[in-house]
Design a protein that fits this description.
ten-stranded antiparallel beta sheet, two-stranded antiparallel ribbon, elongated
Length: 330
């Protein structure tokens, strides 16, 4: 009959070994092993942190090397962006001062193109020692992209104009709307976005020029176009009897305070064609022609389009004679 196993000190689960020693329970031995492993892991971690902070490990060395290479690449990229910006700036200068002058068209509006991107766009680049380098580089790239977009739009427009150069040359308002000999004492009321209103006594833009002349003076279309409006009755917002021509290519001209309108809406007209006669209708204090040139629905100074038919001396003399209008309270 097998001999019963004797427990030590009356504690259940404690066994005597074959050599007579007391053997610890399995659970206690397992806890001791886990504790040793945890202590060893903590010590190794502390040693690793200390070593990493005071000594270069191969991994840290690779990270620093990669960061240096990345910083150099960013610096090279910034130099290339600046070079590209200078070249685009040169193209833009030629665009505004050469190409557009050849086609007698205004510079392209940049309204809205330079609105900054929201700060959230660069949020992912924030938070480390390289943030200023990375954010500055990407902001420069965004600015270059906007410049390229603007020039692309501008050159596309010039390409379209080049295909229609003959039509453009005939459409641009380029002659006087009345005979210069019909002017009273060479009187021209000036285009003045900051005009002091003669009745309201406050700043109200005068978006055209006033040509003082007798009632019934012939009025001529200043470029080829289509009659958009031809109003021969009513107050018409102060313009009185009025003709509005659409010359395409972004150009329109307005002829106001007329006595007789000789064209109809939708009618095609040619430069120099008789379209109306001057009068004193609408908000007007005397017979004259109110003449406007609009480019892309923005009023521009009509005198600038007369320059092609005058010498520099004549143009300067004309500009000196310009004065604020007293013909109308429009």
């Amino acid at each position: 009959m097998a001999q019963k196993q004797i427990t030590s000190s009356g504690n259940p689960g404690t066994r005597r070994s074959a050599r007579g020693g007391v053997q610890a329970p399995f659970r206690l031995r397992f806890y001791r092993l886990v504790r040793k492993l945890l202590v060893g892991f903590i010590l190794i971690s502390i040693a690793n942190v200390v070593f990493s902070n005071f000594f270069y490990t191969p991994k840290i060395y690779r990270i620093h090397r990669d960061n240096r290479e990345l910083e150099i690449k960013y610096r090279i990229l910034q130099d290339r962006i600046r070079t590209a910006q200078r070249r685009v700036g040169e193209i833009r200068h030629r665009d505004n001062n050469v190409y557009r002058s050849l086609f007698a068209t205004d510079t392209l509006s940049i309204e809205g193109v330079w609105q900054p991107y929201p700060a959230e766009k660069y949020a992912s680049l924030q938070g480390d020692g390289y943030s200023s380098l990375m954010v500055g580089t990407w902001q420069s790239l965004d600015a270059l992209a906007r410049q390229l977009y603007l020039e692309s739009v501008s050159l596309d427009e010039l390409q379209s104009l080049s295909r229609n150069k003959e039509a453009l040359a005939a459409a641009v308002p380029a002659i006087w709307p009345i005979e210069r000999s019909a002017l009273h004492n060479n009187y021209i009321g000036a285009f003045n976005p900051r005009r002091m209103h003669p009745v309201l006594h406050r700043i109200v833009a005068h978006n055209g020029i006033d040509l003082g002349c007798d009632r019934g003076t012939p009025v001529y279309a200043t470029g080829d176009g289509t009659v958009e409006k031809a109003v021969s009755e009513g107050y018409n917002g102060g313009f009185g009897h009025m003709v509005l021509l659409d010359h395409e290519f972004g150009y329109k001209t307005r002829y106001a305070h007329l006595s007789d309108v000789l064209v109809r809406p939708g009618e095609k007209v040619r430069r120099g064609q008789l379209i109306a006669r001057t009068g004193n209708t609408g908000r007007s204090t005397g017979p004259h022609l109110h003449y406007e040139v609009l480019h892309k629905n923005t009023p521009v100074n009509p005198i600038n389009y007369f320059n092609r038919n005058m010498s520099a001396e004549e143009y300067e003399r004309l500009m000196e004679n310009m004065r604020d209008t007293n013909f109308e309270s429009l």
